[in-house]
Design goal:
Layout: H1 13-64, H2 81-86, E1 97-101, E2 107-111, E3 119-121, E4 137-139, H3 144-148, H4 169-186, E5 193-194, H5 201-212, E6 221-226, E7 230-236, E8 243-253, E9 256-270, E10 273-276
Antiparallel strand pairs: 1-2, 3-4, 5-6, 6-7, 7-8, 8-9, 9-10
Amino acid sequence: MSVNVRARKGFTLIELVVVIAILGILAGIAIPRFMDSIETARGAKLLADLRSIESAGTVYYTKNGKYPTVSTESVLGKDKDFIEKYFGSWPISTGGYAIVQGYNGINYRYNLSNGDIPYEYAYNSQAAADKIYEGRATIGQKTLEQYLGGEAGRGSGPVSIVSASSLSSNEAESARDHLLDALGNTGIIIGAIDSTSANGAKVQAIVNYLTNQGISLSGCDWAIRGSESNYSIYVFPKLTGTGKVNATVYNIKDSNVTSSSQTVVNVKSDKGTLKIDK
């Protein structure tokens, strides 16, 4: 009796490399979008909590003819029943960043620290100067409207307000490679170069070279900082105003990429031209 033994075939090295590369590309696209969705959910919770506190305060005012003087759950004041009777539990803010879509359609990104910034109601001291906060819920001494308007509020202001959009890793890497190619073929002396400097000779040289290659970087803005042998390339979404923006930074030494990272950079107006403050 003969027995047929079916040969088992495994994956080849090339197949494994292709699969790993595809997974890496998918992860590069999905992770930034996933992080944005988490921060958007935190922003939605922040706004919902502020509205919830103010709704409870309105009901309290209707029944008692005054607003409660409670500040936070840890500082109950004389009206501790405001929390005990009107809330199952006092809302607790989350840590990290939260994205809030403003009235003007711009997304604002706020730093909520480590979750140690509490919601407050009717503001703490109730001094004459604080009467505008009476009957209002705040967190970081900012009201609902101030979050929606991207305003600083009464305190130190948002730790960070930036466009929520960010480039995918593929978009950033593609721009980096094209810029490296242009720098290597135009003989530009590297220093401070900004894509937004429409009249800059260095920018025009890079754009002209890429145009001749059939390449356009119109989908993003970029900046270069440093010296000939040691510089950094910043790639980020199109600048629309001052504030902050999410950027991918590539550190270059002797024409080789030595490291890359995600960072938040300041955007300033330099004689009417938007540039990163680096």
